[in-house]
Design a protein that fits this description.
2 helices, mainly alpha, about 0% strand
Length: about 100
């Protein structure tokens, strides 16, 4: 067991020194706090990785089943008819302003 280049004998010495410095009452509290800190760091790291992957690959994958269930797929295909605007007259319209 080699963590950060520290073997089992070195870890036992560090634990013994921590027990002497902090005492048997505070050592479990410190271990619990350290565990919560590491868990928070791990969840933040996973959330960062998730957001990073979303930025890299923004297109969600769509399965054939979800497309078949989509209400859009139940619509008929669009018509091929092209609608054009009415033609504009070549001469301007005259407006009569005569008073009766």
């Amino acid at each position: 067991m080699n963590i950060f280049g520290i073997g089992l004998p070195e870890m036992a010495v560090i634990a013994a020194i921590a027990l002497l410095v902090f005492g048997p009452k505070r050592l479990p509290e410190m271990g619990k706090t350290l565990g919560k800190t590491l868990k928070g760091f791990q969840s933040a790291s996973q959330e960062f990785e998730k957001e990073f992957r979303q930025v890299i690959d923004p297109e969600p994958t769509v399965s054939a089943a979800s497309v078949a269930e989509s209400p859009i797929s139940a619509l008929p295909p669009p018509s091929e008819t092209v609608v054009t605007a009415p033609a504009v007259p070549a001469t301007p319209l005259s407006v009569s302003t005569e008073a009766d």
